[in-house]
């Protein structure tokens, strides 16, 4: 944050914040990186060395290409720069290749593409109401929001330590949100369509975009009570949206459709043969479901109600594996998770249609779609919590109630990412960075809403403080117990279950707010 002092009282504070976090990212270059580093190196090699017709068939490495075509072309473009750093990284058969030049190239490619994220944050700040702005720069909502987004702890450790390219993707999403706030609907729709063909996880929030664009763009006027004027429907606007989606999809999928490879591409994008949960259980409803199954199986064994020989070995010994087999509770299918997700999303979508609350209503629906998909989806990755955390930052500086939800969701969601960084040198880094971000988030939002009721009740405060003892046990106590050899998965289990409670609570609290808030009455044509 040293760069902040350069321009505390001037117009360049945003540039100082962006520069400061960029320097921090550079300092993180030598840190641990996960297998995702090899994943993206392999994709560089695939797209550079092989013809397009082989991209989604190549399987020399276990890390096959499973992102949409736009991201494949993004890797292809990067590969033509990578060859000037180290040609060997572009060899498909050089598995687990990692030279110092390869490391520098891949790390800097993430840092440089983050510039789109920085621009998107700047555009989002223009959409923030400054009525609550204090006299001091650091008390202004735009400043607070800039810090919450640019210095987001989760994005920092996932992209710049663990290694991924989420920054510019979230930049596309935030930029599309900003365009919808600015009523530049076609631009927002175009950016989101492009985003979907970079990374399909953003399908989680597609219902919010579809309903909001139909409600606010295709219907041009409301009645005095907020309901739709059906005669205001514009077929031209609907066709323009459809044309945007069609053209973007044609550009992305067209070459593979021409090669008769579309089924192969889709099979890579949607691998339902994977298990219900990722290797580390994401802190969602299924983590609670799996944990309950484990508890019931232990009780069943103690009471001799279950036959030990009939219990799946992975269920009781290996811990958190992808193909988790339930012992007592019914096993869960992809269709069951789809039904649960749709049921969780539908109320928010209905509210967006029947209780319009403007762009903020859209943003709330988007976050609920993201959280519902995270909580009930199939094979959810723990990193997907950022899909709700980052947009929630925009709401946090507007209302005290939203700020409270944001702090619970962010603190819990960020802590759930700790198991991603399991090496000893990164332990002080992740603890320090999270403490700094969390303390700033709580103190700045408390200052912004100091004239309103406290942001936390006693129960919420107690829960959040419980993360401290949990971390002490997982990192400093458990390794020295006899349980480490017999039950090595216990720290992951405790982290996942504890965080699942907080994230589910934040989801429920936001839902109550959405369902009880009155609609925004608006009669002017858009």
UniProtKB/TrEMBL annotation:
The enzyme's E.C. designation: 2.4.1.-
Name of the protein described by the UniProt record: Alpha-1,3-glucosyltransferase
GO biological processes: protein N-linked glycosylation
Membrane topology: Multi-pass membrane protein
Compartment list: Endoplasmic reticulum membrane
Molecular function (Gene Ontology), one example: dolichyl pyrophosphate Glc1Man9GlcNAc2 alpha-1,3-glucosyltransferase activity
PANTHER family: DOLICHYL GLYCOSYLTRANSFERASE, DOLICHYL PYROPHOSPHATE GLC1MAN9GLCNAC2 ALPHA-1,3-GLUCOSYLTRANSFERASE-RELATED
Matches recorded under InterPro entries: Glyco_trans_ALG6/ALG8 (IPR004856)
Membrane-crossing residue ranges in chain numbering: 12-32, 141-158, 188-214, 234-259, 335-355, 361-378, 429-449, 461-483, 489-508
GO cellular component, as recorded: endoplasmic reticulum membrane
Source organism of this protein record: Zalophus californianus (California sealion)
Taxonomy, superkingdom: Eukaryota
Protein family per UniProt: Belongs to the ALG6/ALG8 glucosyltransferase family.
């Amino acid at each position: 944050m040293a760069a902040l002092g350069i321009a505390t009282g001037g117009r360049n504070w945003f540039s100082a914040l962006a520069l400061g976090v960029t320097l921090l990212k550079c300092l993180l270059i030598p840190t641990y990186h996960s297998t995702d580093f090899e994943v993206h190196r392999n994709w560089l090699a695939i797209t550079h060395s092989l013809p397009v017709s082989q991209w989604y068939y190549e399987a020399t490495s276990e890390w096959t290409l499973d992102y949409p075509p736009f991201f494949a072309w993004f890797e292809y473009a990067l590969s033509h720069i990578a060859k000037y750093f180290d040609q060997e990284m572009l060899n498909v058969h050089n598995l687990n290749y990692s030279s110092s030049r390869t490391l520098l190239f891949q790390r800097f490619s993430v840092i440089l593409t983050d510039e789109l994220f920085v621009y998107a944050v700047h555009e989002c700040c223009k959409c923030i109401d400054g009525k609550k702005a204090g006299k001091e720069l650091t008390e202004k909502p735009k400043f607070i929001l800039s810090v919450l987004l640019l210095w987001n702890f989760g994005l920092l450790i996932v992209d710049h330590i663990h290694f991924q390219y989420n920054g510019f993707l979230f930049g596309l999403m935030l930029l599309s949100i900003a365009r919808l706030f600015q009523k530049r609907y076609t631009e927002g729709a175009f950016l989101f369509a492009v985003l979907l063909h970079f990374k399909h996880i953003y399908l989680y929030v597609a219902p919010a975009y579809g309903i909001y664009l139909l409600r606010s763009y295709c219907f041009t006027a409301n009645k005095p009570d907020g309901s739709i004027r059906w005669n205001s429907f514009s077929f031209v606007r609907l066709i323009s949206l459809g044309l945007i989606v069609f053209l973007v999809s044609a550009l992305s999928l067209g070459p593979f459709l021409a090669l008769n490879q579309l089924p192969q591409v889709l099979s890579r994008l949607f691998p339902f043969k994977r298990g219900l949960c990722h290797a580390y259980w994401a802190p969602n409803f299924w983590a609670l479901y799996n944990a309950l199954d484990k508890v019931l199986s232990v009780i069943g064994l103690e009471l001799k109600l279950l036959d030990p020989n009939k219990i799946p070995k992975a269920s009781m010994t290996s811990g958190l594996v992808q193909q988790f087999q339930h012992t007592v509770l019914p096993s869960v299918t992809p269709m069951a998770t789809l039904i649960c997700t749709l049921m969780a999303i539908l109320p928010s979508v209905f509210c967006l249609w029947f209780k319009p609350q403007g762009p903020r209503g859209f943003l709330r629906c988007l976050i609920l779609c993201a959280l519902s998909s995270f909580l009930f989806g199939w094979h959810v990755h723990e990193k997907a919590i950022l899909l709700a955390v980052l947009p929630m930052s925009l709401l946090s500086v507007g209302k005290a109630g939203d700020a409270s939800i944001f702090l619970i969701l962010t603190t819990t969601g960020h802590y759930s990412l700790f198991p991603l960084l399991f090496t000893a040198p990164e332990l002080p880094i992740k603890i320090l960075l999270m403490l700094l971000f969390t303390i700033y988030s709580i103190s700045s939002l408390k200052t912004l809403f100091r004239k309103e009721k406290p942001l936390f009740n006693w129960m919420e405060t107690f829960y959040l403080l419980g993360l401290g003892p949990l971390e002490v046990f997982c990192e400093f106590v458990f390794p020295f117990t006899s349980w480490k050899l017999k039950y090595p998965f216990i720290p992951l289990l405790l982290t996942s279950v504890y965080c699942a409670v907080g994230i589910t609570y934040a989801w429920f609290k936001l839902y109550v707010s959405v369902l009880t808030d009155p609609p925004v009455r608006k009669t002017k044509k858009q």
